[in-house]
């Protein structure tokens, strides 16, 4: 007989939001999402035997959707599977047709060093970026929030470039005085807790195992995972921080242990605001990072 385990769904506010959103999509989209989810769940059961194997009747598997606020403190997981009796949990970050790792903001009020790394930026950084953001705020206020970026002449060179140059200088400065900055940067942007990233694409599913601290893929009661997801080494050195070739919007941060991140700055709204957004992507990751791709037939 197939193993059974007791499952409890935590019906919090995040669960209710997700449930309502799912109810609003088309029947076809529901079918596509459910099929993709079934592939992901079955595969996770294969590589995480604790999902379907307990240590007794009191060992309940709890499933919980986390709020977006967790991402602000570096926990990028969307769904948790928890066994309190075993003091064990795994998390999943779910993506639909994209794999951006973070969408962080910059402004004259945001200390990205303290927020991301726990280390304050220098006064020189704010001395550089504050006048630029103040000017944007004045433009927004004077136009009663109607002025658009397209009406601002050459804002790439007048806004994006000086802010990104200040960002590069400050990141280099912080790196010189903080030995753990490379690993802390990846932990904040990629995730400070181990997790599986599940990416739904058109007729495809990709599962990645960010086993940075060795908490994924554990056996239970002599039951081993069907596949191994190796521990992934964090970076220990920043090798280069510079603009992407022929770009005024993107900074590339290259680190050892095969880690490379891109930081593309952009305006999140068509109207001028006194803050800018980073679209942060993982360009290169260690070869030992476990990845598996499934082809999924279209639901008719």
**Average predicted confidence as pLDDT:** 92
Helical element count? Answer: 6
What is the percentage of strand-forming residues? Answer: 15-25%
Question: Rough shape?
Answer: globular
Annotation keywords:
300 residues, alpha+beta, 2 domains, five-stranded antiparallel sheet, 12 strands, globular
Short summary:
The chain is an alpha+beta fold and 300 residues long. It has six helices and twelve strands. The protein has helices spanning 13-24, 27-47, 112-117, 123-142, 155-177, 181-190; strands at 7-9, 61-65, 79-83, 88-96, 105-106, 195-201, 204-210, 238-243, 250-255, 259-266, 276-284, 290-295.
Walkthrough of the structure:
By secondary structure, this protein is α+β, with helices and mostly antiparallel strands. The chain has two domains: 7-99 and 192-233 and 287-295, no CATH class; 105-185 and 234-284, no CATH class. The chain is 31% helix and 24% strand. It has six helices and twelve strands. The protein has helices at 13-24, 27-47, 112-117, 123-142, 155-177, 181-190, and strands spanning 7-9, 61-65, 79-83, 88-96, 105-106, 195-201, 204-210, 238-243, 250-255, 259-266, 276-284, 290-295. The strands form two sheets. The chain has a seven-stranded mixed beta sheet. It has a five-stranded antiparallel beta sheet with strand order 5-11-10-9-8, covered by helices on one side. Strand 8 and strand 9 form a beta hairpin. The longest helix is centred in the middle third of the chain and has 23 residues, at 155-177. It is globular, with a radius of gyration of 22 Å. The mean pLDDT is 92.
